[in-house]
From TrEMBL:
SMART domains linked to this entry: AAA (SM00382)
Originating organism: Actinokineospora guangxiensis
Keyword Iron-sulfur: no
Keywords: ATP-binding, Nucleotide-binding
PANTHER family: ABC TRANSPORTER ATP-BINDING PROTEIN, HEMIN IMPORT ATP-BINDING PROTEIN HMUV
Name of one Pfam family that matches: ABC_tran
Domain ABC transporter, first and last residues per copy: 2-234
Protein name according to UniProt: ABC transporter ATP-binding protein
One GO MF term attached to the UniProt entry: ATP binding
InterPro entries tied to this protein: AAA+_ATPase, ABC_transporter-like_ATP-bd, ABC_transporter-like_CS, P-loop_NTPase
Amino acid sequence: MLHASDITFAYGGAPVLAGVDLRAGSGGVVGLIGPNGSGKSTLLRVLYAALRPHGGTVLIDGDPLAALPGRDLARRVAVVAQEHPPELPVTVADMVLLGRAPHRGALRGYTDGDHAAAAAALRRVGMRAHADRDCATLSGGEKQRVLIARALAQDTAHLLLDEPTNHLDIRYQHEVLRLVREIGVTTVVVLHDLNLAARYCDHLVLLDAGRVAAAGPTAAVLTPGVLEPVYRVRVRTVDDGDCVQLIFQAVSGG
Ligand SMILES: Nc1ncnc2c1ncn2[C@@H]1O[C@H](COP(=O)(O)OP(=O)(O)OP(=O)(O)O)[C@@H](O)[C@H]1O
């Protein structure tokens, strides 16, 4: 269970988050949506302690995030951030193995179990055949899938993803989000594509200029009445059987 309450944050003097609440639990997928600059990535960084909020608290399974040692945090929360790590000459297999580091004993090498977990994670994102490649030679989408595999190999109860479908072709956008659903890990995912959010998220938090404009079950948030004033586009909904899908139209002068 991840529970952020009344989060405020400012870069320098400029407020970016004000009174934001977010709750994610029971293996559900919470989508964090909102226009450019609304504070989604900043909130995610607060959730994995890369930024310390100026007000409010974040609890992980009831424990204050601020009090958790880094290694303990890494055993509980895996992150795929937007900023990619520097391009070191490291193989795909070794990059994914890094996900096992928080579970490794201080003086022990990686175990057979660690190697098996890394290989399984690579297989799940369709990158097993690339295990021996140098990460620096991968395409943007392949790199993204390796970073997702590393997070899966970390085997945490919580997963935080910042636009994980960036760079992915349409097949892998769906594969990755379907996988996130299937593994049943409590997930917070920043998404721009509201149709992916409609299909794969249980709950949504819609940010607008650093405040929660709407939060609740996905179908309750993805309505024209909620979305149109925030995104300033015209929205139509189409019932696609198991979820709603959205069609957008620009509003002239909007
Ligand atoms: N390091 C920083 N220093 C100063 N301002 C920042 C910094 N990072 C982000 N901001 C500002 O904070 C606001 C929120 O940014 P953030 O990246 O959280 O938004 P976002 O909703 O994730 O945006 P996008 O959808 O464009 O990725 C923006 O106005 C941005 O310019």
